[in-house]
Amino acid sequence: MAWTKYQLFLAGLMLTTGSINTLSAKWADMFSAPGCSNAPEHGFSHPFLQAVFMFLGELSCLAVFHILLCHDRRRPTPTVEPGESFNPFLFLPPAICDMAGTSIMYVALNMTSASSFQMLRGAVIIFTGLLSVAFLGRRLVASQWIGILITILGLVVVGLADFVSGNTDGGHKLSEVITGDLLIIMAQIIVSVQMVLEEKFIYKHNVHPLKAVGTEGFFGFVILTILLIPMFYIPAGNLGSNPRQVLEDALDAFCQIGHKPLIVLALLGNTVSIAFFNFAGISVTKEISATTRMVLDSLRTLVIWVVSLALGWESFQGLQILGFSSCFWERDFTTDSTNP
Q1: According to the lineage, what is the superkingdom (predicted)?
Q2: Which of 43, 128, 189, 198 is the most exposed place for a label (fewest CB within 10 A)?
Q3: Bigger pLDDT: 206 or 184?
């Protein structure tokens, strides 16, 4: 069946904003500028502050939901289902998972390439599938188990490509790249818990997806913003990539932004793109199918890889083609139509 213009628009919006989201986060990591108190020029390494901006983008989905709801009420026949009332604190556990997983991934993105980062995120398929069996009582069909095995193969190939190449194009040591890859895998375990919790709550309470994303964004934004205060004083040793070597130095980040305002553009790109990406992803699932959403997510990996090569952020590695191919095929298997 041919797609409508609106469906094509949604697919293009999801692919574009999803790619911008990862690329803008990586672009922010590549800036360097002086810090506070005449601190020498250093890299913009502020993963927790970047996560705060990302949650601000998710929080905007809540505002969009209420705007759509108010606009819809003026129509003779409303089309937006507000969903039943629920306790917002139900979404606190998935919000905490989102906060932890996102923060870890932003730390990892500082250590590895944007393309490897995006490919390794495919590990969420493995852990989500296993947790769905354990806690949601699902039964995975043979094609879905094949998809999980292909995913594992793809992760091994991507990790091997990073190990063989050293992935030092961005000035990263091999030890940093390996640590970053492992952190991404660890984050996917947390994200898979988040996805299982979200699915359980959304279906049980008939929550509108935009409202769910926005509620999580609210909790994540408030909690992580408050946590920036103790992080300012917690020593992190070599893990702290700021002059004071603390867990997060938000003041240093704003001083760097003052010296190099272009950083704001990268942060805004991350904030705005995550809001549109969530909207487009939910709409693609509703208007087309979840399978199409997963395929578009696979294409996003290709776009990020090609753009990174074009910008000179990384060099060509043949093994990454095999890794990308496996990431694409595993989604083709794991998004089987029998999946509820």
Answers
A1: Eukaryota
A2: 43
A3: 184
Q: Which stretches of the chain are DSSP H helices?
A: 5-29, 47-73, 92-109, 114-120, 124-135, 142-165, 174-205, 209-231, 250-259, 262-287, 290-310, 318-334
- Integer Rg of the chain from CA: 20
> On the CB side of 210, how many CA atoms lie within 13 Å of its CA?
20
pLDDT digits (tens, 9 = 90+) for 244-266: 889 899 999 999 999 999 999 99
User: How far are the Cα atoms of 57, 129, 180, 329 from residue 269, in angstroms, in the given order?
Assistant: 10, 31, 23, 30
Q: Which two three-digit tokens encode residue 305?
A: 């890889």
CB half-sphere exposure, 320, CA atoms < 13 A: 24
How many angstroms separate the CA atoms of 311 and 305, rounded? 10
Predicted TM-score (pTM) of the model is: 0.77
| Closest among 217, 256, 303 to 28, alpha carbons compared | 256
**Burial (CB count within 10 angstroms: exposed 0-12, middle 13-18, buried 19+), residue 152:** middle
Burial tier of 293 (Cβ tally within 10 Å: 0-12, 13-18, 19+): buried
Q: Which amino acid, 268?
A: L
Sorted by where each begins, the domain ranges of the chain are 46-70+84-334
Cα 269 to its chain centre, rounded Å, is 13
